[in-house]
Design a protein that fits this description.
With 509 residues, the protein is of the alpha/beta class. The chain contains 13 helices and 18 strands. It is globular.
Length: 509
């Protein structure tokens, strides 16, 4: 270090043995000019709000972030919303998966933590004394993102048993998948084309099943060679597959992508899968989950002693042909786990499909329709009615995959502030990962003063790193916060380290 500069460890804030961010801001500029830098100590006990903001301003000027857009807002949960403070609080920035915090907080209030998605098995037509149903079996979807999530057979076995108990021994009609609760728009219009065929871009169907995904397997003969496609699980008959997948190095990991579109019949595989594994599997998005459900259930019945004569169909396909499903009778219903439990996996795993289904369910409750547009309007109006200025807020989806989404740090912090006033707040708070300990926050903040004190939702895209949630400070005070970093040029580890520096000062409040 330059001997003309005072020792970092010898400097402190007046009246304490800790470093003042105000002082450090000027010192760090000198150090950076000399090609040097330092990290803050693990915590600053007795820190002030001004020192937190000063630390945000400091990292905003450092290499890797100095050309980025940042937004920060902090508000005491016991104080009025007007007391919110921060840095560039009103810049509308891309939230990425932090959008899930808004979606899940809204659902917790609008739907309630005890809400359950319900799927119904119905019959249409006349059931004769001989057990022959002269009509259709209808699967009425309720938008449940957890329906038959890992395996189809256990759920289909329940449905078959329900048909037998109702007296059905043979179906002269067909199995129809009814996904009408969310309409026919599977994916928001603002989603990028290169996301649509991949599992994380699976559309929110009113009849979602098997997480709306399939597995595609490839052989990995040698580095640089084409990776032969060996099939899908479950099967996707009637679809065409164009394989451009190559074999990467053993350490390259999964860099394979699926290109497809909602209701489409063509999939293209591109990218690389790692060598040395013999066979490697990636995940794609089902193009028509309702038809997939109707087809596979029909196949299950035919293969297990309950014949179905007709060709599987859906409400959309029937509607396109000018036919309606018509009146039917419910013979069985299947409920999901309560929303409070689904919120946990949604936020801990940053599950796009669950967030989208929750988003659409809000729309059904508030607007009477399950379109993405209705969902966005329902969410926006919910928080506007609580007095939050939503100027600059745009919600293209519920999960944050869309780069058309924008929200300000102030809006997000005030939404979290308002959510903390609700009677069911604890269900939402518990759904957020804990810094250094769980979910998507397990790998950030561990060993720092922020570990265990931050509960937040993360949001990550190329050159974007965001966090929003709650702080339990050392003083016992509680805060809502939002911190956005957009278009950074630093590596992810460096950005995370800078964010932890801010959190560590916050922890000392």
């Amino acid at each position: 270090m330059n001997d003309s500069l005072p020792s970092v460890t010898a400097l402190g804030r007046a009246g304490s043995g800790s470093l003042s961010p105000f002082y450090l801001s000027g010192l760090n500029r000198l150090l950076l000019a000399a090609g040097l830098s330092f990290a803050l100590p693990p915590s600053l006990p007795g820190a002030t709000v001004e020192e937190v903001i000063a630390e945000v301003e400091l990292i905003a000027g450092e290499p890797g972030l100095h050309t980025a857009l940042m937004g920060f807002c902090l508000v005491d949960l016991e104080a009025a919303p007007e007391t919110a403070v921060g840095y560039r609080m009103d810049a509308a920035l891309v939230p990425a998966s932090v959008m899930k915090a808004i979606t899940t907080a809204t659902a917790n209030e609008v739907l309630g933590p005890d809400y359950r998605f319900v799927t119904e098995l119905q019959t249409k037509g006349v059931l004769g004394d001989d057990g022959v149903l002269k009509g259709d079996v209808v699967i009425r979807g309720g938008g449940d993102p957890t329906l038959a999530a890992s395996e189809l057979s256990p759920t289909y076995a329940k449905w078959k048993s329900a048909l037998l108990e109702a007296g059905v021994k043979r179906v002269e009609g067909r199995v129809v998948g009814d996904a009408s609760i969310f309409g026919t728009i599977l994916t928001p219009e603002t989603w990028p084309w290169n996301d649509l065929g991949n599992y994380y871009g699976a559309g929110a169907s009113g009849l979602t099943v098997h997480q709306n995904l399939f597995y595609a397997s490839f052989l990995t003969p040698s580095v640089g060679a084409r990776a032969p496609f060996s099939g899908t699980e479950p099967r996707l008959p009637g679809h065409e597959f164009v394989n451009e997948m190559r074999v990467g190095t053993a350490a390259s990991g999964d860099k394979g992508y699926v290109y497809g579109d909602p209701y489409g019949k063509l999939f293209t595989f591109r990218g690389t899968v790692p060598a040395g594994s013999g066979s490697f599997t990636i995940k794609g998005a089902l193009p028509d989950p309702a038809l997939f459900c109707a087809r596979t259930f029909s196949e299950y019945l035919n293969g297990n002693g309950l014949p179905v004569a007709g060709t599987p169909s859906t409400d959309r396909l029937l509607g396109n042909a000018g036919e309606e499903i018509g009146a039917r009778e419910k013979i069985f219903e299947q409920s999901s786990e309560p929303l409070s439990e689904i919120l946990v996996t949604t936020n801990h795993e940053s599950d796009n499909l669950k967030a989208e289904c929750i988003h659409r369910a809000i729309a059904v409750k508030v607007k009477g329709e399950g379109s993405p547009t209705a969902a966005a309007e329902a969410v926006r109006s919910h928080w506007a009615e609580k007095g939050i200025d939503m100027t600059g807020f745009f919600m293209g989806d519920g999960c944050g995959l869309s780069r058309a989404n924008t929200v300000t740090a102030r809006q997000l912090a005030l939404i979290l502030h308002a959510a903390a006033k609700g009677g069911d707040f604890e269900a939402f708070r518990q759904s957020l990962p804990v810094a250094g300990q769980s979910g998507t926050l397990k790998g950030i903040g561990g060993g720092s003063a922020a570990e265990g004190r931050i509960r937040a939702k993360s949001g990550t895209m190329d050159r974007i790193r965001n966090y929003a949630g709650y702080l339990e400070a050392r003083s016992g005070k509680r805060y809502a916060f939002a911190l956005f970093v957009t278009n950074h040029t630093a590596d992810l580890a460096s950005v995370k380290a800078k964010i932890v520096r801010v959190w560590s000062v916050m922890a000392g409040l």
